[in-house]
Amino acid sequence: MRLPVLDPARLQRTPRKTRRFDGPFVDRAGRKVGYLRLSITKACAMRCTYCRPERIADTKGEPRLTPGEISAVVEHMALRHGLHKVRLTGGDPTSRKDLTEIIGRIAAVPGIGDLAMTTNGLTLPHRAREYADAGLQRVNISIDTLDRERFAELTGVDGLDRVLEGLDEAERVGLWPIRLNSVVIRGRNERDMPSLVRFASARGIEMRFIELMPMGPLASNWAERFVPEAQMRANLDPIVRRWAPVEQGHDAARRFRVELDDGSWGVVGFITPMSCNFCAACNRVRLASDGTLYPCLMDKPSGTILPALRPRFDPALFDTILAEGLGQKRDEHPHDGHAVMTHIGG
Ligand code: SAM
Fold first, then answer.
1. Do residues 160 and 125 make contact, with C-beta atoms less than 8 angstroms apart?
2. Mean pLDDT by 10 residues, the chain (346 residues)
3. Could you tell me the pTM of the whole model?
4. Domains of the chain, start order
5. Which residue among 37, 48, 51 is best mutated to probe the pocket of ligand 1, counting the most ligand atoms within 8 A of its Cβ?
6. Cα–Cα distances in Å, from 345 out to 44, 95, 115, 242, 339?
7. Which residues' Cβ are closer than 6 Å to ligand 1?
């Protein structure tokens, strides 16, 4: 069978709205955006000392995108612009009662090959199956220490056992691969790094250490609390025999396969926004729960997508707003942390 020859001139004349694919969003540095990080609420049951000082008790009045608005954005970005990866974050995404609906709607969008969530893990013991059944594929769980008291001090919740139970349940229901995230804070949890690596490696889970960013409650004494990647690696050297780098791709983490002192192997990643930019490979854009658009985690927002959503979704206006936002995405992020972590979601 002969395939029809496509005439480029005719394609050019095809009215825009009948074309199925408009091409990826590309920022001014030529980076293609295929990854949306969606912060769906500011609410979180924890109040990590480095993230937020107080539990946000009343988030009832919080302006939030609805599940329908979220799926309109994701569907448009996927079908017209090649979005393929979505991560739900917050606050904590599990604080939203309609989370399962949101997961289900995003999972139903063709082209979304990777649907993940970053969570504190507290709801996983009883909800992991529901999330997986709705279409969630994997989770990253924050865990800064395996010491119960220190966990309570750092997070404001005596919840280590529940988080560990949640990890078991997430694994049982197939929310996999799981990654564990830990923000390393001088004088707080540096000493917990080796036990976290041993724990994660024994379960075949990647352990990621995040450099503290100058945002949130520790912003003013960030310099005293910051632990750079080089120091983190030095902290792990006593238990690591070999560091074998893994290719980075679009991943924000610099990853290593590590051989431990007992001969076992694990994977350790470092997310190093302060000492080593991962900006050149950045393929992401961020949307906060109220529709604020952040082209970069560390930069100020570029605006809001609300005019393109209400009263109904306007794809052309959405594209204009996103293109304007991406026009502001810098080649390298600033280091002074304009954004609020509880708003943007890390
Ligand atoms: N509630 C979820 C959780 O616990 O993972 C998702 C939101 S939380 C803001 C996302 C990530 O940002 C967590 O891993 C958290 O530890 C990290 N984070 C919060 N404040 C930070 C800071 N100042 N510097 C670096 N990472 C931070």
1. no
2. 38 47 87 95 93 62 92 97 96 96 98 97 98 98 98 97 98 98 97 98 98 88 94 98 90 93 98 83 92 90 96 96 90 69 70
3. 0.92
4. 32-344 (3.20.20.70)
5. 51
6. 11, 13, 16, 33, 10
7. 44, 50-51, 89-90, 92, 118-120, 142, 181, 183, 210, 212-213, 215-216, 341, 345-346
